[in-house]
Amino acid sequence: MDQDLLDDLLSRVSKFASILGISRSELKIYSTLLLEGQSSARDLSDKLNISYTKIYSILNRLEERGWIKKVGKRPVRYEAVSLRDLWSNIKKLLELRVSQFEREFIEPLSTMIDSSSAYTVVVVPPANLKRTLVDVLNEPSKQYLIAISSQELMDDEVYQIINGKSFTSEVRVIVQKGIRIPEKVSIQLRVLDNMFGSGIVTSSSVLLVIKSHNNLSGIISNHRYLVDIAQVYFNHLWDQASPIGTNP
C-alpha cells in the first residue's frame, strides 16, 4: 500500500466525513483493513501508531456501523466489508443525518417564518434526472456553478445550454478527469481527478447528483442554507481543481 497516497486521500475526504461524524482514524483503519486484509487489534495499533486502548474503541464503532466484522478467535481478527457495502452504509447514514437536520432544525425554524419563504427538498429519480438538470440550467441566475463527474450528464444538449449561459451569467464548470468535452470552450473550465458526485448551484437552487449501481439520482432544493453550503463547497473544489490543459 502506498502510504503517502492513502494519507493524501484521507486528507481530502476527512473534512467532508467529519460532517457525518466519521473520524480520520476510522477512515484510516477501515482503509488499512480493506487494502491489506485481515488484522488483529495489536497489529493495527503497531502499524498505525494508535494506542491499543484507542484502537479497540474505534474498532467497536466501525463494527457497530457495519464497516468491519470480526473473524476467528484468539486473537480476534478484523476484516473490512466491501466498498459497495460501505457506500450503501454511508448513503443511509447521510440520509439519516439530512432527515435529522430537517427534523430538528429546518422544520422548527420554518414555523417561525411566513409561508412566502417556503422551501422544497425533492428527491429526483433516475428517470427524471436529465429533465430536472436541464430545467435547473434554464433557471434565470446570475451564476451557475457546475460539477460533472459522470459522462452521461455532459451531452451536447447540456453543453450547449451551459455555453449559452456563459454570455449572460458567470459560469464555472469542474469536470472529473476523463470526461469528454468539446475542443472549443468559452466557459471557465477546470478538472479534478475525482469528485464525490455531480451538481449544479444557481443563485436560488442546488441540484446534487450521485451514482449508485450505475444509476444516477439526485436531490434538488431551493433552501437558502443548502444553496449557501453548496456554493462554499463548490468554491473549495474550484480552488483544488486545475485549468484544462494542465496537470491536476
Structure explained in plain terms:
The chain has an eight-stranded mixed β-sheet, with helices on both faces. Helix 2 (24-36) crosses helix 4 (52-65) and helix 3 crosses helix 4 (52-65). The chain is 48% helix and 21% strand. By secondary structure, it is of the alpha+beta class.
The percent range for helix content is 40-55%
Can you tell me the residue ranges where pLDDT is under 50 for at least 5 consecutive residues? none
Oligomer: single chain
How many beta-strand segments? 11
Query: Rounded to an integer, what's the Rg over CA atoms?
Result: 21 Å
First CA to last CA: what distance? 22 Å
Shape: globular
- In round numbers, the mean pLDDT is 85
- Individual helix count: 8
SS strand fraction = 15-25%
Largest sheet: 8 strands, mixed
Given helix and strand content, the structural type is: alpha+beta
The largest sheet has its strands arranged as 4-10-9-8-5-6-7-11
Order of helices and strands: HHEHHEEHEHEHEEEEEHE
Which structural traits does this protein have?
248 residues, alpha+beta, 8-stranded mixed beta sheet, 11 strands
List the helices and strands and how they pair.
Elements: H1 3-19, H2 24-36, E1 39-40, H3 41-48, H4 52-65, E2 68-71, E3 77-80, H5 83-110, E4 121-124, H6 126-137, E5 143-148, H7 156-165, E6 170-176, E7 188-192, E8 198-201, E9 206-212, E10 215-221, H8 224-240, E11 242-243
Parallel strand pairs: 5-6, 6-7
Antiparallel strand pairs: 1-3, 2-3, 4-10, 5-8, 7-11, 8-9, 9-10
Q: Outline of this structure?
A:
The protein is of the alpha+beta class and 248 residues long. The protein contains eight helices and eleven strands.
